[in-house]
Amino acid sequence: MSKYETVIGLEVHAQLLTKTKLFCACSAKFGDPPNSNICPVCTGQAGALPVLNKTAVEMAIKTGLALNCEIREKSIFARKNYFYPDLPKGYQISQYEKPLCVNGKLDHVPIVRIHMEEDAGKLLHDTGDPAVSHVDLNRCGTPLIEIVSGPDLHSPEEAADYMRKLRNILVYLEVCDGNMQEGSLRCDANVSIRPAGSKKLGTRTEIKNVNSFKFIENALAYEIQRQTAVVEAGGKVIQETRLWNQQKGTTEAMRSKEEAHDYRYFPDPDLLPLVVDRVWVEKIKGTLPELAGEKALRFAKQYNIPEYDAGVLTAQKELAYYFEECVRHHPSPKKISNWIMAELLRELKVRDQDITEIKMKPEQLARMVALIEQGTISGAAGKGVFMAMLDTGKDPEAIIQAKGLEQVSDTGAIETVIDKIIAKEAENVKRYQSGKKNVLGFFVGEVMKAMKGKANPKMVNEILRKKLG
Ligand code: ADP
Ligand code: MG
Ligand code: ZN
Is residue 468 helix, strand or coil? Predict the structure, then answer.
């Protein structure tokens, strides 16, 4: 057992999938030309007044409900004051003391709070001139929710796992696109160590804006080892904000932690308290989609597949959809699940692809499974067809024809080959007839060899048994 115990808490920022910003009607779209989606409200012109986006509130409530939170009847938007060139207002509107959602749970991990806030703009330092930076205010005022976990995660793997589950839920709910690379989903990872068995929290550091599952694991593992070395050498961990440097594989100090009062939070005088009607909450509850957990239970029951398979197939919304589409085209759920679990998931990993990026359509995989069942191709030939479908997106029938993989299920053709082999192998025929039944395997092998592996194995077995007597 290690001398120290790791304590981790994640603050996750998720960009909401609204069409417009949190307090104005500007488009919240990513990737438009710089400064094309701005107005007096989101650029902080004097006298401009914010108007709260109802859809954003609804998405935050949805998330709160899916994470088993209490939805506060009354929550308050505050101003978080600080200066930064990408923040023309000089403050960010965020829920501070009274967030919208509190006391939730994701599996065993407590969710302390979910609050709404607006995002800041973006600085572009890469202008070609080291003396010049540009600012793009398109992101100013786009809606975010921040989901804060309790300090109840105890390893980098557990933290990444929590983050994966959280991402799945947000994507299932259609409140966030979950794109970590573009920054629509990002995480600040807080971590501390303490003597094993101690109940008191150690001093934490916060790693800012980690934007992949892998980086979360790597950054936390590095930081745990760094803190351990500091403590072992008799030193003290300093509470500070650090940045993960992926190239070097280390975290670097960014700034010592500001205290909350540095932001001089106070309720925004331009915004009334947000009052959420109970009837509305109930209505939203009724619109919650089936989440991964429920879907897994349904898959296991409806499709009669093992719970383990159902869990894997529903871990990602798009994968669950893919499976159900396959089954809709060819109702052989167990066989389709086997192909997805064994072959498809392995190939996705090898090719570093996501299920949404592949060329093979669900109906094509379904048809291939059907062709194997009908005996048109062998299971072994199916593997080649499967790979070709992934590579090219072509139909299974076309691939089978082009590669000449069609199985021979013509009784006459198989019988002719078998007759020839029986005539040649009189010795082995005798052995079989004297009770050595395993010689059958030898005959099957010979027939397959003669027919270049294309004979329908079931028919070969049947005909051989009949002829050998
Ligand atoms: P702030 O908003 O100032 O960063 P919070 O107290 O709200 O601070 O905590 C932020 C996150 O840090 C939470 O996810 C919480 O679980 C986590 N956290 C707090 N204290 C510790 C600690 N000592 N070690 C690890 N994580 C911690
Ligand atoms: Mg923080
Ligand atoms: Zn605007």
Answer: helix
